[in-house]
Structures
1.
Amino acid sequence: MISESVNQLVEQFAKLPGIGKKSAERLAYHVLRAHKSEALALADAIRNVKENVRHCSQCYNLSEGELCSICRDTRRDPTLLCVVEQPRDLMALEQTGHYNGLYHVLLGRIAPLDGIGPEQLTIEALVRRVREGQVREVIMATNPTVEGDGTALHITNLLADLPVKITRLARGITTGSVLEFANKEMLTDALSGRQPF
Amino acid sequence: MEKATAIVLRVVDWSETSAVVTLFTREFGLVRGLAKGARRPKGPFESALDVLSLCRVVFLRKSSGALDLLTEAKLLRRFRPGRDLSRLYGGYYIAELLVRLTHDYDPHPELFDAAEATLSALGDASEPTPSAVHVLRFEVTLLQLLGYLPQLEVCVECGTAVAPRDGRLAFGLLAGGVLCPRCRPGKRQVVALSAPAWQTLREWAQPDGAARTIPDRKVGGELRSVMNHYINNLLGSRPRLQEYQSGF
């Protein structure tokens, strides 16, 4: 044992995802070797995130204020609403630079086998938002998995009576790949989701 | 290194890219393993490890208590319930029953085939049989293959032949089967089973062919209720997905 403080730091690092005991020790020694200002900047950054970041009251994205920067942006198209599972999915879509509408983050997916039902997600807020807002199209961008599809289907059923167009992200073969190496499922998706050309 | 054909029953995210998966394999029964990199689209798993998918897997067996290590998975068929939530929840329920009623490294190839056939039917949008019928028939097969099927032919207590009286029979949930009028008194958790429901259960328990019987809405609802109670007693608790099973 070197010191109680170092042990505590190792313990805390070891709780992070993908960090084992050895990696935690390496990180702790890095912090010990680093300049005091650098180490305290890390501590401040963690404190700031925990104290200032919360969920946007409208879309449930991560935000430092009542509304996130996307919901506040008046240049975005409020008639388009993209539904994603997690904030990191939203970030991935934002990085494409090809979407100019708003988002709704579910904060998970319906997974009854894990005890996660619709009431544990932000689905009720989504339905209210579509009902009360100016949304014309809801894009279901939940993951293309059985649980992601099930979540999208559940929401689609809830929105069925509302005058909105509901779409699902396309799926199939990857751009730049060759058909020969695409698997059966990819080709099935691509065929059933074909579009006028 | 082991190879098996597997149905994916559960996938739990583990770290950024890995997952802990529970598989029901034809060759080894229940297998639980860590799939490193399973959540990456490229790599040895190629998105094959999705709930209820059928795939070929390669894994390393670990010592008792530890998770096995999955090294490869090739997708054979993805579960596609279409736009019918009852089919999806039927599939989830089958997965839950398999997790709760089978054991690690206890193979049941016939049960695997029945589960695979039922999931295939649930995933076929053109299949006319209601999903609830597929699920109920699977439950009867599951109970039969695991040795839990209630006694339907003779009184479970004394072994005498039983026949419906006024169109009904006593079915003991705790006793584990039908009861004759002499053995019925004093038994707890006994329900009255209608003759058509009893007949349907008997036919479904036959090894071949008779499983094609499709009950009407009333009998189907009764069978669902009896099966729910029977399975709850067997498991000691209610399966999570049971409340989603109706469909008649």
Note: Residues 31 and 39 of chain A are 6 Å apart (CA to CA).
2.
Amino acid sequence: MELQGRVAVITGGTRGIGRAIAEGFLADGASVVINGRSAEKGAQALNEMNGGDRVHFVQGDVKSREGCQAIIDAAIAKYGKIDIMVNNAGGATGHAPVIDLEDWAMEDSLKWNFWSTFWCTQMVLRDMVPRGWGRIINVSSLEGKHGKPGVSIYVTAKHAINGFTKSCAQEIGTTGVTINCICPGAIETDIMRDEGPAAAASMGLTYQGLLDWFASEAAIKRLNTCDEVAAVASLLASEAGAGITGSMISVDGGTAAY
Amino acid sequence: MGKLDGKVAAITGSTRSIGRAIAEAYLREGAQVVINGRSAEKGATAMKEMGGGPNLAFFAGDARNQKDCEGIVDFAIEKFGKLDIMVLNSGGVENTAPVAMMTDEEWMLEVTWNLHSVFWGMRKALQHMIPREAGRIIVTSSVEGKLGKPGIPGYAATKHAVLGLMKSAAREVGTLNITVNAILPGIIETDIVRDTGPSSAIAMGVAGYDELIAMFCAESAIKRPNKVEEVAAVAVLLARDVAAGITGTSFPVDGGTMPY
């Protein structure tokens, strides 16, 4: 049990990638705090995951500092510490080509993806650094390395996460705390089904056309799966992950150029 | 229940150091493993120390020799019936020098050892894996596969080259359930680094072995060398069934050294 005794927090952990990571950590022996905006989805996740006292749900929205603080505080109140922070919550709404883009859409995407990562990272570092052990895993994207038309709000936020991660890694390199990004290719999660059609429209595509485009760019000619991302998260969270920091790990079936 | 139960792996250059750590991790995860090295004596020592019983075999051969490089694939299939995981790990330098002073002999040795051997082993493994539509190929590159330091032009060039080979092969077999990836470790104090480090330090213009290690550490965020176990953990992940969606990737294990 590689993560026995560890406490993990996963934002946006009731479904999709976050949920798969939470289940992976749970299987490896950790206690996990999952977060989401909907109490109903939280209750459903707790029921399905069946982790007993090792799973805890905290309702909350990461789009504000107060929202992030409440999640962190609740996790520490429940389990006494945070060893592994997975900044997974994210998405974007209000997609449009730059020439037509509205300010609120850019602001909302930055809050959802980037500011939330900054806030939670800063808060958990204050718990991790004095204890000399920690793992921060930021769920970025293939679009944190590349860029597609019509989705600049998402691409910009994910690139920002990658830069933030590299800089932070250099700051904390000798403290026993690592910080890395996972950059998944397209995965057909619930949030992709929710937000994908609007993103596709902003690119001048149908939803299926968008999925096909991502698959066609990959060497594997298919989308990725949540389990593939979760396996990398478990590695980064493990003891052996101590020597990996500031990295942008691609889980994209051979899409990214670097 | 191991993560690699039922799998057969072959690892070039694996009686010691990184290759050995990967072999040990694979054994622990339930795989049958062929280790390889030039020295029968070191092979026998490794076999004894690793205690892998019937799940472990040694193939004596030099990765710089095409017949030996291909022979390990045939040996694994003969011994264990198939090959699921090929780790192309063998590599190094002998008497590196700045470009202006590099001998043809050293250049050819490095290209053969670090690039040709990877190509020979990869081609032979793919010829077995493609009809079976299953396989994992893992190449040991280096931080110098993306960077480049003075005094190690052959090493940097060949470790870059294998990344191009890896990316191209990954796209060729992407839909066949065969992945091709590279691991890029930072400096690790392996036996081979201890053997060749002092002469490499001179070529690189640093005072000695300790200063060479210190130079690599200073470039990392963690300010220490990496460990073979850190590389082995990634090699296990990439070999697993669940890693089917990870291919064409340059996986860093460098403590935050490379900028991309």
Note: The interface with chain A takes residues 167, 170-171, 173-175, 186, 220-224, 226-227, 229-230, 232-234, 237, 240, 242-256, 259-260 of chain B (CB under 8 Å).
3.
Amino acid sequence: MPLSDFQPVIGLEVHAQLLTHSKIFCGCSTAFGAEPNHHTCPVCLGLPGVLPVLNQRVVEFAVRTGLALECTVKGTSVWSRKNYFYPDLPKGYQITQYDQPICEWGRLVIDTPAGEKVVRVRRIHMEEDAGKSVHDATASAGQSLVDLNRAGVPLLEIVSEPDLRDSDEAVEYLKSLRDVLMYLGVNDGNLEEGSFRCDANVSVMPKGSTVYGQRCELKNLNSFRFLKQAIEYEVARQVDVLESGGKVLQETRLWDVNKGVTRSMRSKEEAHDYRYFPEPDLPPLHVADALIEETRGALPELPRAKRQRFMSQYGLPAYDAKLLTAERPLADFFEACAPHAPDAKKLSNWFLGELSRLLKEEGTTVSSVRFTPTQLGELLGAVEQGTVSINAAKDVLGEMFRTGAAPANIIASKGLAQVSDVGAVEAVVDEVLAKSASEVEKYRAGKKNLYGFFVGQVMKAMKGKGNPTLVNELLKKKLGD
Amino acid sequence: MSQPLTDLTMLELAAALAAGKVSSVEATRASLARIAQVDPKVRAFLRVDEEGALRAAEASDARRRASGPASPLEGVPLGLKDIFLTEGLETTCGSRILQGFVPPYDATVVRLLREAGLPLLGKLNMDEFAMGSSNESSAYFPTHNPWDLSRTPGGSSGGSAAAVAAREVFGALGTDTGGSIRQPAAHTNTVGLKPTYGRVSRFGVIAFASSLDQVGPMTRTVADAAALLQVIARHDPRDSTSAPLETPDYLADLEGGVHGLKLGVPREYFTDGMDPEVEASVRAALKEYERLGATLVDVSLPHTSHALATYYLLAPAEASSNLARYDGVRYGLRARDVRGLQELYGQTRGQGFGAEVKRRIMLGTYALSAGYYDAYYLRAQKVRTLIREDFTRAFQQVDAILSPTSPVPAFRLGEKVDDPLSMYLTDILTLPCNLAGLPGLSVPCGFTKAGLPVGLQVLGRPFDEAGVLRIGRAFEREHDFFRRTPPCP
């Protein structure tokens, strides 16, 4: 059977670092980028005698995420210890949730070429992150170093059902999930720094079958592109194995970025026996109904709903709505500007064009923009009224972006206003035509390409400020066209 | 004063300090002198902190003069089992693997003692990681029973019990996971209280079995135990299993007696293997309680026979995980000349842990392993619930439960070292209390013909330490057992 006769089956396990100020079981900072082992204390170093105390904020973030993903939030959940030895795991066990997680059975709707698709979320649980082992040049030969700044940073693990059917769906799910978490303010969505990480469980089965094949777990997928490439490679690999009469083995495979292949990291036999058992240092976690209801009431509008509203409320195309709602601050700013702008689509054009360009150029975000929604509205109004040309308006926006000065002042101080006064323009047109009698004669005799010359002369005389529409209108009238 | 200073109880010393008859420095020097005199034979101390203790005693005397005592026990010198983290003072938990480990912080109970103005004399010997009933699993040396130097003081808080009995300290703190306070107290004619699970903070106490460990006072009298409990019983936000309860006044009703109380005598606790002299002593104590106006009630705790197996699945399971952090990476022993990570782990833990600790890590690892979890760990948890329910039912009928603390008196050093099971069996009467999380007290109740102490155990309802202490005190008041000093050295 060729590749096309097989159906890939994919589920994703996502680890998202929570944007709390302190770690999950101690008061140390979660800030990224400090000196190694700077953000540590006896608790997250795993010294003898220490005990964990749960950061309440972590629970609130988990509940918020669970509700956004339409999960059942459990009144009681249980902490467990996952036991394994590794130098970056200070206690020799990770405190996590195992058989009784805080959230179960949710869903996330994604867009596919075939329309909307519901991806089921099996569970969400809270756990502590491990530290980092460093094997690079900063260590001397034969040494490895351990940085425990990350040890104890709170994580949510979000596990989907194997509902995804190809690499594009997997990428779409991961992007949508990332958007949701960022909207909720619980995660920064940074794949490169590893604060948003993804493992993929991939198997294949003959099309039409209902029995899943043996799955492999793929790791080291720290970009959307790698996720897509790794799944596609892995699907093809598994089909090859089956086609050549072999069996897919249950194993963990690592995506090799340089070679573009997945390779075996450990087999089922080498898999750890984590010896999970309930964490005796933490009582079962009880989440009050009041917290659940309060959180539900405070949930923000989620990306998908916002996108649909942008289409219906502002009459925007799907493309514009998707880009404008990709990040909450941009969408919020758009909504703040909309009442002041003459036209939502034109506002969208400015957002996705000039404003996006400026943000990218300055490497900044919309939150640091210096001008107000009213000022942007004024600028767009000026364009609409012909007070300023589109090109000049771009300069004005740049100046507003950098200084926060009012558009009217910028237009005035830079002399960017267009001359739209009919009498004033007409006087210049008359003067130009009078000075260029021979060209007018040739034009009238049929040398129509001289038209540009006249426009140029008028504009030159007006130092570029003549309203182009008006200039054209008058020239054509006077030339007898 | 005709009697030596070190013979005073904690409260007697506190009264003398308050009356200005003696200073904390004098009391501390007396203890240090006594330690120098007897400890070469008793070997209760792993580390004497002469400098730290005297500094604290001086500060205590100065405070008393300047602003008055910080607590009723201000100035009374104390010893600490080496399981409590002490900032700046080496803490080994009786293990090779923590040799040289100097903690950067104080356990909550240590902080509370310091704040209450009690000078700390040093760290007391114990079974390695509190795993043992004789102090023989200490990686350093065994402690000897002051009542018979050829015998063990019991364990795992054997160093604490021996030091209290030998008058090296006025009192001590121990920990009790399956009887580690009460059994050595019984073997040394001292008082030991294991409070209700959650009554005293475990923060900074090196974990053996987290769901069973509890900190408690080891003293010469019941009143001293009450006074010391008063200092350490406190809700601690750093221990999520610490009960958010107010601390009652443990001394207020201490002399209230037992008149009208119903005291349960569990038939399962008077077993075949019991030493006849121990049984006789305890039966005599029971009669005494009747005479004092209590009613004895025959009760049944039907799941008692499963307690040992339950304990030896759950405690090692938790221990196997709790001891995983001793890996040679961050602190403590690190094996030399190793190649690679696996060898680092293997050699460090192989050299750092003793036989009993290894045995329990293996037991616990096995009990938690895939395929065995349901049959061992999970089933043990279910039996633990049944054992707890036994007590709940019994306490519907009675106010407290009385039994021997240990079925046998102190055994000889070396006698049970090669027979772990018979060693485990000596804890059979103390284990159920930990599994149920109840308060348990051992109070001296007599001596065998050979002069070995016998302990009476009083078990109470959850958080009824006051009741347990009052019952213990009612008996203590009728006797002078606690006044007896050990014959040697």
Note: Residues 322 and 359 of chain A are 18 Å apart (CA to CA).
